[in-house]
Amino acid sequence: MTRPRKRIPEHGRMAFKGILFEVWQWEQEMFDGSTSTFERLKRPDTAQVIATVGDKILSLMQKQPDSTQAFPSIPGGRCDEREEPLASAKRELLEETGYTSDDWRLWKETEPFSKMEWTVYTYIARNCTKVQEPHLDAGEKIELKLISFDELLALTDADDFYDRELVEPLLRARYSESEKQKLFALFFGDGQ
Amino acid sequence: MTRPRKRIPEHGRMAFKGILFEVWQWEQEMFDGSTSTFERLKRPDTAQVIATVGDKILSLMQKQPDSTQAFPSIPGGRCDEREEPLASAKRELLEETGYTSDDWRLWKETEPFSKMEWTVYTYIARNCTKVQEPHLDAGEKIELKLISFDELLALTDADDFYDRELVEPLLRARYSESEKQKLFALFFGDGQ
Prior knowledge:
Number of helices of chain A: 4
Radius of gyration of chain A: 19 Å
Distance between the termini of chain A: 29 Å
Strand content of chain A: 35-45%
Shape of chain A: globular
Oligomer: homodimer
Number of strands of chain A: 13
Low-confidence stretches of chain A: none
Mean pLDDT of chain A: 94
Largest sheet of chain A: 7 strands, mixed
CATH architecture of the domain at 46-146 in chain A: Alpha-Beta Complex
CATH superfamily of the domain at 46-146 in chain A: Nucleoside Triphosphate Pyrophosphohydrolase
């Protein structure tokens, strides 16, 4: 489910560069020949991981410094500048959980918000094994939880499930037996 | 499906005010006692409408000045400053389609993006009637289309369906007969 990309045009200029977000503007010709200033955002891409361990999936209960409530998510985080999304996914999985895998594939590439150049890459890492303790930074409090495939699908009912762009494909699998089998095989392999 | 709201704290300051977006920043205490600058966006809220005409729903094929492709959506747009969302919904429906209704109810209030103070209000307007021709502004090219309830549900498969926050509830109705009946009654009344 990827929408056609709307890009900031060549003649756009960066009007503001913040900590996370950049604001870009350009003069846009309207349908009646007049012009108007248009605006779009940029932010670093995100890489996240469906990481399987046996027949379970690694989930996180995470707390952030500006909120008292923990929320469920999968491992992942911001891509560093000039870092390939797959490298970011591997780094974030290792940092947040201490797990690695040698069986990676890209599952989804979504652009959640039409007025923002921002891509979320979701990878599948099969048969993960633990190689170290997690290395969390000062802005992270994370509790690891191994959940079943059905428990992952049930997260589509959780208002505070962080990874909203996964709700749509997980809902399809939850409601359609054939979609569910396909997704299960993708996450865990088909036994061959 | 509303997530717990994460608000810009009292001591936040506006670092940039653009055409559409504001960037806010504040010093956040981290878990280890250090501080870090956090950032969040604000933008005007959106009001949109499931508008029924007989047993059909008003949909739009819309073009925007910065894209050559038309995309499907429902009527709606930006809330003006100090305008109540219901008033915005009525205004946008009238401007974009020429239709009005005297039977309005709020269906959904969603905050699509956790790092942005932005609420999307989705209203249901039953039994709409046409009272004037649409009044489009210089940034709009719109073709009206009356679609069936099933055609609306099928838009969940369209990559370019604009109203992404509706995909989740529409998918649930598409896959669950009981959810479908509930939603149909909500949109069209239960015949009483």
